[in-house]
Amino acid sequence: MTSKFSSRVRSLVPLLLATASLYGCGAADDGADRLIVIKFPHVVAPSTPKGQAAARFEQLVEERFPGRVDVEIYPSSQLMNDDDSLEALAFGEVQMIAVSLSKFDRLTHSFQVFDLPFLFSDLEAVQRFQRSETGQEMLGELVDSGFLGLGYWHNGMKHFGAPVPMRDPSDADGLKFRIMESDVLQAQVIAVGGNPQKMSFGEVYQALQTGAIDAQENTWSNIYSTKFHEVQPYFTITNHGYVGYLVAVNPTFWAGLPDDIRVGLEEIMDDVTDWENSRAAEINADNLERIRESGRTEIVSLTAEELDSWRTAMRPVWQQFEANIGVDIIAAAQSAN
């Protein structure tokens, strides 16, 4: 049974087919005899939620379409980083990406909702919002920019790593924080007195090791898989933000696929999305325990009062971006809690 994740995506197909035909690559061409290669690069380790989901997608696709579809996965920035993959998808150099939602900051303001600090209480709340009418409409928002969203994949909730045990927002004062390419995340760090540094994921470990940056925010799966805990003495449990991905394809490429393959890939994507999102919290919990057991870093737990001080310090970021994102989108996200 297919989920609601791709229902709105499928409603776009007739329009995309018409667009594809203008470029001579409609689904009516003789695509049944050609091998369709789907290059799928990403920047995280194979053991992470996204890495496991990508591998499962490859396996299921090649089992269903042997000799017709070949999925090539390139993990850990082996082929390119996220910024390069956005451009590569638009130009047809790769066929599928799963890039952090924060990376679409430059293309749409509405996706900034996913970066608002302390908006979502947990991954279940995020998923309720993504499956809502508002969340589903957002999947097709970037079609004109060359990105058709097929689904959302979770990584997890974010926590702070730093050279000091950050119990109060004042502990962040003056620290150099690595952030993703996001104006919201930049404002979030500034709100607590930090110095935001936009940097690609693959550069973070060395930057922490050399002191080029002091702090960063990430999920336990990303922290453990990239060994950030080996070069950061403290991590503070905050659950202050969300890391998730938009799984996207080029709309013209997608519309140009033979009908049976396109529908089959959508069904597989639905299944993989449900599988991945159900495992994300489990993977992060397991990785947190592995970090604890390593003895390489200290995990700092906050009291309710300490956590509330972080919420208070970062809440002005909501007002700063409310007009850009849209009051209705923020309200829809809040109601998912």
Describe the model.
With about 325 residues, the chain is of the alpha/beta class. The chain has two domains: about 150 residues, D-Maltodextrin-Binding Protein, domain 2; about 130 residues, Bacterial extracellular solute-binding protein, family 7 (D-Maltodextrin-Binding Protein, domain 2, 3-Layer(aba) Sandwich). Helices cover about 45% and strands about 15% of the residues. It is built from 14 helices and eleven strands. The strands form three sheets. A six-stranded mixed β-sheet has the order 7-6-8-5-9-11. Strands 3-10-4 form a three-stranded antiparallel β-sheet, sandwiched between helices. Helix 3 links the parallel strand 1 and strand 2. The chain is globular. The N terminus is likely disordered.
Itemize the secondary structure elements and their pairings.
Layout: H1 7-11, H2 13-22, E1 36-41, H3 49-64, E2 69-74, H4 82-90, E3 96-100, H5 123-130, H6 133-139, E4 148-157, E5 159-162, E6 176-179, H7 183-191, E7 195-198, H8 204-210, E8 215-218, H9 220-225, E9 234-236, E10 242-249, H10 251-255, H11 259-294, E11 298-300, H12 304-314, H13 316-325, H14 327-335
Parallel strand pairs: 1-2, 6-7, 6-8, 9-11
Antiparallel strand pairs: 3-10, 4-10, 5-8, 5-9
Helix pairs in contact: 3-11, 5-14
